[in-house]
Design brief:
With 150 residues, the chain is of the alpha+beta class. It has one domain: HIT family, subunit A (2-Layer Sandwich). Helices cover 30% and strands 19% of the residues. The protein is built from two helices and five strands, in the order E-E-E-H-E-E-H. Strands 1-2-3-5-4 form a five-stranded antiparallel sheet, with helices on one face. The chain is globular. The termini are far apart.
């Protein structure tokens, strides 16, 4: 689709990108990107390469592969970022291209306990956000390592 921002995301991992997405890992079926969100360092998306809308558009083996990658990303985010909770969501209401959000959440983040798309309930401490942002490079390396394992 020409108007789908996730279809247009073609940069390869390791290359500089401009914009809100930074590819971390890719195979022939999907890609893992870091989302450049000031309040949510460590926010990742697992994006199916082909433009499909729903999980049931995939054959069962592709669904299993996608979910295996989602769980590997969640595991790496948990270990590196040390969040209080991980939110895993597949919405697609705004961008109807199959993708999963993996978002580390903390009791002191801007929206906790509400979804990150809700109205903010507090201003996070910039020092804490900077500390979490410092973990993102380690997270990217950990994701690549985990995702290359069979």
């Amino acid at each position: 689709m020409s108007d789908c921002e996730l279809c247009e995301l073609t940069a390869e991992p390791g290359l500089e990108t401009s914009g809100p997405y930074h590819p971390v890992w890719r195979d022939d079926k999907l890609k893992v990107i870091m989302v450049d969100d000031q309040n949510y360092p460590g926010f990742c998306r697992v994006v199916w390469n082909e433009h499909v809308r729903e999980m049931t558009d995939l054959v069962p083996t592709d669904r299993r592969h996608l979910m295996d990658v989602v769980w590997r990303v969640e595991e790496a985010v948990r270990e590196v970022m040390g969040p209080d909770k991980i939110n895993v969501a597949s919405l697609g209401n705004v961008v109807p291209h199959l993708h999963w959000h993996v978002i580390p959440r903390y009791r002191d983040d801007a929206h906790f306990p509400n979804p990150v798309w809700a109205a903010a309930v507090r201003v996070p401490d910039p020092a804490v956000i900077d500390l979490r942002r410092a973990l993102v490079a380690r997270l990217a390396n950990e994701l690549v390592t985990r995702l290359q394992k069979p």
